[in-house]
Design goal:
Keywords: Ubl conjugation pathway
CATH class of one domain: Alpha Beta
Oligomer: single chain
Number of strands: 10
Structural class: alpha+beta
Helix content: 55-70%
Pfam families: BTB, NPH3
Pathway: Protein modification; protein ubiquitination
Low-confidence stretches: 1-24, 187-192, 471-496
Number of helices: 23
Family: Belongs to the NPH3 family.
Protein name: NPH3 domain-containing protein
CATH topology of one domain: Potassium Channel Kv1.1, Chain A
Strand content: 5-15%
Mean pLDDT: 78
CATH architecture of one domain: 2-Layer Sandwich
Shape: elongated
Length: 535
């Protein structure tokens, strides 16, 4: 690293402190020789002058200050100034020995940084520290002071010291990040502290929680995208928590202090989450809820986190709700945290439109199909999710029926009453025709539910037949059929045996055939009427 510094010398420890050990680091950059022999840079009110025998032929304005300089010294090191000077001369400025004026309104640093730039261009040494290196590096990039233009130029030297300061100690790293606040307009282009790449996540994830908090606070102030901050927090959490176990194996710390550290860590992670919408994934937030419940974090903080997840449900997919469990007797995925969030959503959704409720209803039905085959999923938890939302949260029960059928198949030992309680939320009129037909032939459903569906199917058929036979009262026909079947199948809660179910199915099929025949007759009659009218 020292050989790469190319003229950047570290001061002795006795004077400025060592670069290592977290003490302040200091560097003196010695630039290449300038083509102009000059004295020091001096200030007179808002004007800066270089003491030299050659008259100034370039004035650079930075904010409220004017620097009276020389084109030869500045353009030989700066590609950006070189282009501006060339453009000005092409427009006819600066001829006949006149001085060119350049205004740098968008220079990403202050007057002090540009003063260092001028000193470098004129061959004067430049003092830099961890607190001043980032603005100088940004300014050097903005002014295009690369080695392609002049060997040993400012970009390479500031870049070398920037890397040296970052890798020397975290204290210096924080100073560098803090200094970036004043140059945030340029860091998006120069990738100082922020990049679309996440290579730095791995380095930051090695920090303990107190240092990590400082880094996150610094990059937030610097304007790093909330999504990147959220991803960094998720990466750090995955590094320090294996499942729900805190990776902190210091045997010298008592167990009760380790538990307290875990609680403080989780609460700190929740508090530092970026507040912006979609900055953190729903799945990661659910994982934090899981950790928080295990470690017993502040209940109010946990409630706010659950409310935040609840507000995101309408934009989630079923896979977002899958958070793994790690116990042998646990369900594959943690269902309890999803139940808590759905309950929080119900409290929020009291004033929501039915369309929005239906979005979450479909989400929960999809989630149920993903977890229904889990043999460790209790009937209580399954029913809590099935019954969690209001009845108007669903317009179609097809996915719910599918989930219930999968659950009954994976839990064949359920009693008849238990199976009936699971199916209560499923309604005949919210099933498609195919789903109804499947349900009426499904041996896993309780007989009471199958019988009810068949009776409703008969009622539907009777109404259709009655509508075709205008001389029959639809209400009377329906009542007669219901009375007959009630007498057969449902006396005082008695559930029809399998033979009765088969008879009812046969009746339904016969009624369907009659309905088809009636419809065909109706069509023939309509055609005959049309022909007679034409004649």
């Amino acid at each position: 690293m020292r050989s790469k510094m190319m003229g950047c010398r570290e001061e002795h420890q006795s004077t400025h402190g060592s670069v290592l050990g977290g003490k302040p680091s200091h560097c003196v950059i010695y630039p290449p020789k300038s083509s102009i022999v000059a004295g020091e840079l001096e200030r007179r009110n808002n004007d800066w002058f270089v003491r030299t025998k050659v008259a100034s032929d370039l004035m650079v304005q930075v904010g409220d200050f004017s620097f009276h300089l020389h084109k030869l010294a500045m353009v030989s090191k700066s590609g950006y100034l070189n282009r501006l000077v060339f453009a000005k001369r092409s427009e006819g400025h600066g001829h006949n020995g006149g001085s060119l004026k350049i205004v740098l309104d968008d220079l990403p640093c202050g007057t002090n940084t540009f003063e260092s730039i001028v000193n470098f261009c004129y061959g004067f040494k430049v003092d830099v520290t961890a607190a001043s290196i980032a603005p100088l590096y940004c300014a050097a990039n903005f002014l295009e002071m690369s080695d392609d233009l002049h060997q040993g130029n400012l970009i390479s030297k500031t870049e070398a010291f920037l890397s040296f300061a970052i890798f020397s100690s975290w204290k210096d790293t924080f100073k560098v990040l803090k200094s970036c606040e004043s140059v945030s307009p340029c860091n998006g282009n120069l990738n100082v502290g922020e990049s679309s790449d996440t290579w730095w996540f791995q380095d930051v994830s090695t920090l303990r929680i107190d240092h990590f908090i400082q880094v996150i606070e610094s990059i937030k102030r610097k304007g790093v995208k909330p999504e990147l901050v959220g991803s960094c927090i998720a990466h750090w959490t995955a590094k320090w928590f294996s499942g729900t176990t805190f990776v902190f194996d210091d045997p010298t710390i008592p167990k009760h202090l380790t538990q307290k550290l875990q609680r403080i860590t989780i609460e700190s992670l929740i508090n530092m989450l970026p507040a912006e919408k979609n900055s953190v994934s729903c799945n990661f937030l659910l994982y934090l809820v899981k950790l928080g419940l295990k470690i017993q974090v502040n209940s109010e903080l946990l409630s706010k986190l659950e409310t935040r997840i609840a507000s995101m449900l309408e934009q989630c997919c079923a896979q977002d709700l899958l958070v793994k469990n790690y116990g042998d007797k646990d369900t594959t995925y943690d269902v309890g945290i999803v139940i808590r969030v759905v309950k929080a959503y119900v409290l929020l959704a009291l004033k929501n439109s039915r369309a929005r409720l239906c979005i979450v209803g479909r989400l929960i039905d999809g989630y149920l199909t993903l977890i229904a085959r889990d043999i460790n999923l209790t009937l209580i938890d399954f029913k809590l999710l099935v019954d969690a939302l209001p009845t108007n949260a669903l317009s179609c029960d097809n996915n719910l029926y599918r989930a219930i059928d999968m659950y009954l198949k994976a839990h064949p030992s359920l009693m008849e009453e238990e199976r009936a309680s699971v199916c209560k939320a499923m309604e005949y009129h919210r099933l498609s025709e195919d789903a109804r037909q499947h349900a009426m032939r499904n041996g896993r459903l309780p007989l009471k539910i199958v019988t009810e569906f068949m009776l409703l199917e008969q009622v539907k058929m009777a109404r259709s037949i009655s509508a075709s036979k205008s001389n029959i009262n639809p209400r009377t026909t329906t009542q007669v059929i219901m009375k007959m079947n009630n007498k057969k199948c449902l006396e005082k809660g008695f559930i029809a045996p399998q033979k009765e179910i088969m008879l009812i199915r046969k009746e339904v099929e016969n009624m369907k055939m009659q309905l088809n025949q009636l419809q065909m007759c109706k069509l023939k009659l309509q055609k005959q009427v049309q022909r007679s009218c034409i004649k």
